[in-house]
Amino acid sequence: MMTFCFTGIRSFPKLWKSNPYLGLSPGHPYIFLFLKDCYGIRSQQKWFSLKTASPQNTKAMNLLVARARSLQKGDEGRNKQVSSESHLFAAGAAKKRSQMNPQSRDHALLPVRNNIIQLPTKPLNSEEWDKLKEDFKGKANFENWIISQMAHHNSPIDVAKSLLAWVAIKNNGIVSYNLLVKYLYLCVFHKQTSEVFDVYEIMKARYKSLESGANTLLIRGLIHSDRWKEALLLLEDIKKAMIPSKKNYNDCIQGALLHQDVNIAWNLYQELLSHDIIPMMETLKAFFDFGKDIKDDQYSNKLLDILLYLRNNQLYPGESFAHSIKTWFESIPEEQWKGKFTTIQKSGQCSCCGKNIESIHLSPEEYEFLKGKVMRDVIDGGDQYRKTTPQELKRFQNFVKNCPPFDIVIDGLNVAKMFPKARESQVLERVVSQLAKQNLRVLVLGRKHMLTSRARWRKDEMEKVQKQASCFFADNISEDDPFLLYATLHSGNHCKFITKDLMRDHKACLADAKTQRLFFKWQQGHQLAIINKFPGSKLTFQHILSYDTVVQTTGDSWHIPYDEDLVERYSYEVPTKWLCLQRKT
């Protein structure tokens, strides 16, 4: 165990003096660094069927997408679904779906342990600490347990200080490294600069080098003080063992900007990017906030480069950052920028300025590039995500090759199970029938067991499916997704697909970030979602995005999608709110 003896450094009361510290933002989540302790198949069945080919019907396809409509207002309770005014990938949609489908929630919650003892709220003397330790019934080391709990609950500094004083008295002035670091966390959290300095001096005197967790805390504790450049030395110490984290870079950049050293801030930013680290949004926000007082074309161009970085990496600023961007644009002298917060209409027009947002659809070059990548990385090279045999995949490829292009590809098993209370074959037949009536060429992908007549898979309904659509039934152990991706991409850019699966595993198979972004863009423009309204009236589909949710500019305008503060957006969702910036001409 690493320890430090206080004897011979300075008197203990003087060491733990308290002075107010103004600077550190509260609530920074460094605490996590220090709480680590804490079937039979019938041979006569037809495994695939081919519907008589009809000319490709693009008009009907467009009609299907255009007919997406919202649910009736009368739907309530469990039957109430996400409005079709939204879309499958809208920020917050997944959260709403989970709330409306309580049976899908994970109820396996971790058991909650009651506190063995109550944390003190005021400093204790030695006798009181002795009594508290005597009352402690846990198996862990009392001192480590109590300091971890203090750090977790952000206990007052003077309470933690009384703990360390008691430990030092008991152990001939020795306080363990673990206790010292967790006390440092509390000093940083409570913005006690002088205490941070004292702990720093103790650590420098005792240890030749510190682990990254202590360095991270010290960096954050120093950046708002006149000793902020020492944080840069600590950053260099971290580099000797590892690449610093985005938090380390953020703190040092914030310190440099706070102390008006712009060159150091930009150099650290470029260094961060050179490590392929995605910067924290608060780092980028700091540059814009600082830029309000800078009238310099070179600095302005760097801020515009940040916006292009957000675009190229499909990143979205938070609401506060969006306000900073707006304020900076409007502060540029003689350019007369005006910003407003708005939304984008289904047509792809900005509700504020009326300009069209970039299309979600890939260019022919992008489509061919993505198609080739998916074929190589997911279909041929994605063994970790599928159980399909090469022989069966070849059989399917030959099947698709001999078919005209499809308009819709359906994951039959996935769609059939969308409505748990309904019979699977009935659900699938209804979906296929509705699409077939619009003269769309449909492919249904399924498993062979779906053709085995039983309670939830009626033979007559599956025969209707095979009459109205081309069908391919794979082995029961096979994964459907590679077939779905292959058939959809092979059919052309007009082809859409239907499944609840959000394809995150297959996106992860793709080798680089650029291809993953193209895949997600293609997915947003091609994946149809059925609104859960069964049984009852005609099935409806959520509308597919017609525009690309990405930072974009025309020179005299910027449109920037941003995350709302109170909306929980999952990684596979996109924001629905935008900042519209227009320059008066």
From TrEMBL:
Entry's EC annotation: 3.1.26.5
A Pfam family reported for this protein in Swiss-Prot or TrEMBL: PRORP
Signal peptide: none
Cellular compartments per GO CC: mitochondrial matrix; mitochondrial ribonuclease P complex
Cofactor dependency: Mn(2+); Mg(2+)
Keyword Acyltransferase: no
Keywords assigned by UniProt, alphabetized: Hydrolase, Magnesium, Manganese, Metal-binding, Mitochondrion, Nuclease, Transit peptide, tRNA processing, Zinc
InterPro entries: MRPP3_PIN_dom, PRORP_C, TPR-like_helical_dom_sf
GO biological process, one term: mitochondrial tRNA 5'-end processing
Subcellular location: Mitochondrion
Domain PRORP: 344-580
Residue runs in coiled coils: none
MF annotations from Gene Ontology: metal ion binding; ribonuclease P activity
Chief location category: mitochondrion
Reactions performed catalytically: Endonucleolytic cleavage of RNA, removing 5'-extranucleotides from tRNA precursor
Subunit description: Catalytic component of mitochondrial ribonuclease P, a complex composed of TRMT10C/MRPP1, HSD17B10/MRPP2 and PRORP/MRPP3.
Entry similarity comment: Belongs to the PPR family. P subfamily.
Protein name, per record: Mitochondrial ribonuclease P catalytic subunit
Taxonomic lineage of the native organism: Eukaryota, Metazoa, Chordata, Craniata, Vertebrata
